[in-house]
Each structure stands twice: as C-alpha cells, then as structure tokens.
Specification:
The structure is a single chain. Helix 5 runs antiparallel to helix 18, helix 6 packs antiparallel against helix 11 (about 180-200) and helix 9 packs antiparallel against helix 10 (about 160-180). The chain folds into 3 domains: about 20-85 and about 330-363, Topoisomerase I, Chain A, domain 4, CATH 1.10.132.50; about 90-205, V-type ATP synthase subunit C fold, CATH 1.20.1690; about 205-310, V-type ATP synthase subunit C fold (Up-down Bundle), CATH 1.20.1690. It has helices spanning about 10-20, 30-35, 40-45, 50-60, 65-85, 90-115, 120-125, 135-140, 145-155, 160-180, 180-200, 210-230, 255-260, 265-275, 285-295, 295-310, 315, 325-350, 355-360. The longest helix has 28 residues, at about 90-115. It is globular, with a radius of gyration of 21 Å. The chain has 19 helices and no strands.
Length: about 375
C-alpha cells in the first residue's frame, strides 16, 4: 500500500524555519572575510554568528584549533537535532531517512577508532552526537579497552539505532574471523543503504529528491570501489564480476556494469566507458581528470563536492514545500562545517590564503 501523499502543510512549518536559518549559513563573501585570519581570529569572527553559543561552550576545555573543531562539531550536531523537531508525520519520516546518514557515519567513526586503538577523545571528536547517540554514550564506547567490548556496548544499547546495532551484530562474527575492517564497514553501509531505500519505497513522488540523492551517492561510491579494485589488480588481472558483490546496493548502475567497464586496458578507456553510461554525465569531466592523473582521492573529493553543490542548489530548484529543502539545508550545514575546518587547518598551518580558498566549497 502506498503511503498517502505528503500534504504541503506537513513540510510548510519546518521548511519555513529552515529558510529563515538559511540566512545565517555562511556564504562565499563570509569565507572571503575569514581568509587570512589566525585561529583566534576565526573563533572571534564565529562568535558573532550563529556559532556564538557553540564557541562559548568550548571555552572551558578547548583552545586553539581544537576549540574551533569542537565548536563546529557541536554546532552541526545542534542544527541536525533541531531540524528533526521541525517536522511531524510522514514528513518527519522522510527527514529521519535523510538524517540517518549521520547514524552510520557515527557508527563508522566509532568502529574505525576502536580498530585503530585511537584515544577516546580523538574518536569522540569525529562523532556528531544527535539522536540516541549522545556525547556520553559515544565516549563510553570509545573508551572501551577492546574492540569486542565496544561492539557489545553498541549492540546492547542499540546505538546509534537498533537497526544499525543489528547490522553490526550480524557483521561482527565475519570480522572476528577475517579482521577485514573494509569488509565490516562495507557491510554496515550496505545494510544502511538497503534500509533507507526500503523505507522510501512506499512513498511516491514526494520522496524522489531524497531517493535520487541516495542513489547518486551510492553510484559515486560504487564508482570509487570499482576503480580501487582495478588499481589493486594488474591490468592483466583486472577484476570482473565476482561471487561476493563488492558494490553497494541501491544505485542505478549495476555491479556487473561497473565491473565490466573497469576491465578496459587504460585509464582513458575506463573514463570513456564509464562516462558513456546512461546517467553518468556528471562523472565525465572528473573521470577525464582522473585518467590524466590517476589520483583517486582527488576524484573522490570532486564527486563529494559536486554532490554537495547539487544538493545546496535545491534551495532554488526544489519544491519549496517538499523534502528538497531539508536536503539542501543539511548539505549547506555539512559543507559549512567542512569549510570551517579547512579554514582552521589552513590558519594553523600558515597556508597561503590562495591555497585555502581553492579548497573551499560554495554553492
């Protein structure tokens, strides 16, 4: 049975709140004014913006670049938490799917931290606490002396959600046998993607912007998986379709299509084959640059930046009474957090402002 169509009133209140908050999102001109400031100068400037509360909250425990990172983290967590409360009913259900991306990101941060035996404070600094995974819970998981103990806590406490905890419990025995962290992460992301798209399945056109955003992200990740598989093999033994599907579910492009495309003998041939696939127009220019450089991290960064810009454009192009506005707002705040970290690291390292500017992402 299809869920009833979302009425405009269900998104009207929340979207009105987000449009009002959009005026406080930093724009290109704001970043330009922040270029060249030292870390204390950045903190002082942020204290005169929507970050005031978060900058003040960090003062007792943090200093310098650590204080900037903490203020950015707290602000993003607060914005995501407050956004969730703006919606009810089926509109809230769609917003929950949008925000669930942070549940799995937080889970991966905790898992990676445990696998690396990283200090608890370092791990917690990578978590954006909202929903059921609060600061205290994240710290308790991060401070566990053994990876297995951390997993037991996450499963027992059903964090960050009971679905994520169940996926972790199901994937953990395989990790214990193989110690393959990449495979564990893949299983967690695949389970999350499958659930998210299944949740959207009963919705009709009202969910299409979110469905499209999820599928584009899956396609981008699968493209990178395919290229990493190719890079890890000799040209004579380039990977073809495998019994254990290495690709994430839910994208428009099948694993077989991607695996077949990457057996081409040269990077130029790979770029041409993938760029010719239906729906991959947005890949063509980045793939051509990758073909010349072979730089996969640069390609990943380009794809992430392009997705962020496309989502932020939904403020102007999306349905003003639909889920497009929450998608745009979340992308804008995530991008803002990224840009402030870039500015902070540039200031702390004494980078040329021209170099820092080139790394910023604006709509």
């Amino acid at each position: 049975m299809k869920l009833r169509a979302l009425g405009a009133a269900e998104f009207a209140y929340g979207n009105t709140r987000l449009r009002a908050r959009r005026s406080g999102v930093l724009a290109a001109a704001d970043y330009e004014s922040l270029l060249g400031l030292d870390v204390d100068g950045l903190l002082g400037a942020l204290a005169a913006t929507a970050y005031e509360r978060d900058v003040e909250a960090t003062l007792p425990r943090f200093h310098g670049i650590a204080r900037l990172h903490e203020a950015v983290r707290l602000h993003l967590a607060r914005m995501l938490s407050e956004l969730r409360g703006f919606y009810e009913g089926s509109a809230r259900a769609l917003v929950e799917v949008l925000l669930s991306a942070w549940d799995v990101r937080n889970l991966l941060a905790l898992v990676r931290g445990q696998a690396a035996r990283a200090p608890a404070e370092e791990v917690v600094s990578l978590v954006v606490p909202f929903g059921r995974l609060d600061e205290a819970s994240a710290r308790e998981v991060a401070r566990q002396p053994e990876f297995a103990a951390a997993v037991q806590l996450l499963v027992a406490w059903r964090l960050p959600t009971w679905e994520d905890a169940r996926a972790l419990a199901e994937a953990w025995p395989t990790y214990e046998r193989s110690a393959d962290l990449a495979a564990l992460e893949h299983a967690l992301v695949a389970a999350h993607t499958t659930r998210a798209l299944a949740t959207l399945a009963p919705f009709e056109s009202e969910a299409e912007p979110l469905r499209t955003a999820l599928r584009e992200e899956v396609d981008d990740q699968n493209l990178l998986i395919a290229l990493r598989l190719r890079e890890a093999s000799s040209e004579e033994e380039a990977p073809g379709p495998q019994a254990g599907d290495p690709f994430l579910p839910g994208g428009w492009l099948s694993g077989e299509t991607l695996a077949s495309a990457v057996v081409a003998p040269s990077r130029d041939d790979v770029a041409a084959a993938l760029g010719a696939l239906r729906g991959s127009e947005r890949w063509r220019a980045p793939l051509e640059r990758w073909a010349r450089s072979g730089d996969l991290p640069a390609l990943q960064g380009e794809l992430e930046d392009a997705r962020a810009r496309a989502r932020m454009r939904l403020f102007a192009t999306g349905d003003p009474l639909g889920v497009a506005i929450p998608i745009a707002f979340v992308a804008a705040k995530e991008t803002e957090a990224r840009n402030l970290r870039v500015l902070g690291e540039g200031a702390a390292s004494g980078l040329d402002p021209i170099v820092v500017r080139s790394r910023l992402v604006t709509a």
